[in-house]
Amino acid sequence: MKIIHCADLHIEVKEMKGLSVEKRKIKRNRMLQNFIDLANFAENNKVDAILLCGDTFDVPSPTKNTVSLFKKVILNHPNIKFFYVWGNHDEKFSPFGADEKPSNFILFGENFKKFDVDDEVTIGGVSLPRFIMDSFYSTVNFDKDRFNILMLHGPVNTADQYFNGIYTNKLVGKNIDYLALGHIHLGGSGKIDERGIWRFSGCLEGKNFNDASKIGEKKGFYLLEIENKKMTSSFIPFSRYDYRVIELNITSNIDHFQIVNKLNEILSNLSKDDIVKVVLKGKHKEENPIQVDMIKAEFENKFFHFEVVDESQTEFDFERYSKETYSLKGEFLRSVYADKTLQDAEKEKIATIGLEALKGEDLSI
């Protein structure tokens, strides 16, 4: 038996800061296309079931056009069973009404249920509330002689702003072989007990820079193959528009052209479809200012989206400025360094912030 474990498709994603209106539309359409492509992959690879582990939609009430297309995908693949649990974004949403639900779509509600999908594999699931009661754990019940998969959505062994947490020590001895999870977009895994493991598949495609992938990595899903109650699994890269955050630590002697050369070397490993944010850190000399607009112009046409954030600091010659007689900067620095209530590190920080504020400004009274 072949099973796809995926989560957090976030169809109709709303939060796409920084993208133009046109690119937001392209990215939003792509999130829906991912589901279409996922189902086609499953059909072409003879996958028996797809586990949609929560936040399939980014909103609790997606548009009629989106829901209609989503339903048609499921109806067009009758040989694939789609198992669905709610997440915190699509809480209590069902694409199908009670009188139209097809046999290959199984929605797990707020009470634990399980289904034997063949002679050896059972899939169970619960759409968890935001406050997970201890009584939930007592309802999980699997046959020890079968290969058992449990679908849930929420953080593991910790709480967050959405859930008070799924605690694996309360699932010990429940005959779980594979706990298929959604909610954490960056993936992750661990052991439940000697028998079972838990795993986040990560999101199918990132929705913002918090979901950024490392260079060479992509978002995707896990393909599980179960035979004779033994599982093998492989991660399938699937995303197209990957978020990338590139941190470049600059040194005081670096100039604009050296920054561009370094970025050319790093960014050559990325795809034209990537959504890229470069964050500049470190210090640069005052005579080598960071040319943010020029850096952006150099690279913005090479990627789906490109932006630069300058978090670097200017390295000022405090001694030179403090010796200037008729200078606002000199007066400011002398007053800062004369303050005996401040530590040296505090003085440097205040001096830097002050000179940054005064840099390039013509002040008059």
Strand and helix map with partners:
Layout: E1 2-6, H1 21-44, E2 49-53, H2 64-75, E3 81-85, E4 105-107, E5 113-116, E6 121-125, H3 135-139, E7 147-153, E8 178-182, E9 188-191, E10 197-200, E11 220-227, E12 230-237, E13 243-250, H4 256-267, E14 275-285, H5 292-299, E15 305-310, E16 313-315, H6 318-322, H7 328-337, H8 344-358
Parallel strand pairs: 1-2, 2-3, 3-4, 6-7, 7-8, 8-10, 13-14, 14-15, 14-16
Antiparallel strand pairs: 1-11, 5-6, 9-10, 11-12
Give a description of the structure.
The chain is α/β, with parallel strands linked by helices and 365 residues long. The protein folds into three domains: 236 residues, Purple Acid Phosphatase, chain A, domain 2 (4-Layer Sandwich), CATH 3.60.21.10; 74 residues, no CATH class; 50 residues, no CATH class. The protein is 25% helix and 25% strand. Strands 4-3-2-1-11-12 form a six-stranded mixed sheet, with no helix packed on it. Strands 5-6-7-8-10-9 form a six-stranded mixed sheet, with no helix packed on it. Helix 1 runs parallel beside helix 2 and helix 7 packs antiparallel against helix 8. The radius of gyration is 27 Å and the shape is elongated.
